[in-house]
Amino acid sequence: MSYDDKAKIRAQHMRDHIVVIGCGHLGKRVAEALIDLDLPFVLIVLPEDRERNEYVCHLMEKDIPVIFGDATLTSVLTAANVEKARAIIISINNDYLNPVIADRVRKLNPKAKIIVRIYNDDIADLLRKSGAADEILSTSKISVLEYVMGCFLDLITEVPRPFIIRVHENSKLVNMSVEEVENLTKMKILYILRGSEWVTAQGQTIKANDILFVYGDVPFMKHFLKLLF
């Protein structure tokens, strides 16, 4: 049996996995993070990446399912089993293809969380209005302040950064104390933004719609994700 056949069979048996589309600079980093976090995923790349992308070959050797094909085609998305996926990360460096892929994915799996990389703000606005994507991230927009601050300060990029999450009403975090979450996950909740008010996390009980500033390294993040899911 060929690698392609085995990859498709493995993908069809996966549930609540993550599908990563594209394996350029961003896609590679996403794949590395998913491996570190022990999160199952399927990668979709173009056929030519089999020969020209060394990291794709590395993933194949690690027995990660890689689907080769055009992600704008429903048949390719179906081969990656996007219908049963928890989330889809679209990391292709093409602002015009990414919305097309997001729309096709949404039709196949209305419940999946779709995260799209976009550079053009106008296209990002269209994606938001269409509802085709849940998270629209511009890597350049996220980092623009750091470019400016780097003119005046010594920025440290080696240290893990806090991530910011909103606590939804059905989240398992609701009514848990900050200390309880920190003890279970070894993550650190630095601050809480409650409405327009900054709240010191120490001694607080987490409420719906709180925005948490959470800090921790990858091994601890595994515990945090297990607590949530």
Describe the 3D structure.
The protein has two domains: about 5-145, Rossmann fold; about 165-229, Alpha-Beta Plaits (2-Layer Sandwich). Helix content is about 40%, strand content about 20%. The chain is built from ten helices and ten strands. The strands form two sheets. The protein has a six-stranded parallel beta sheet with strand order 3-2-1-4-5-6, with helices on both faces. Strands 7-10-8-9 form a four-stranded antiparallel beta sheet, with helices on one face. The longest helix is centred in the N-terminal third of the chain and has 12 residues, at about 25-35. The radius of gyration is 19 Å and the shape is globular.
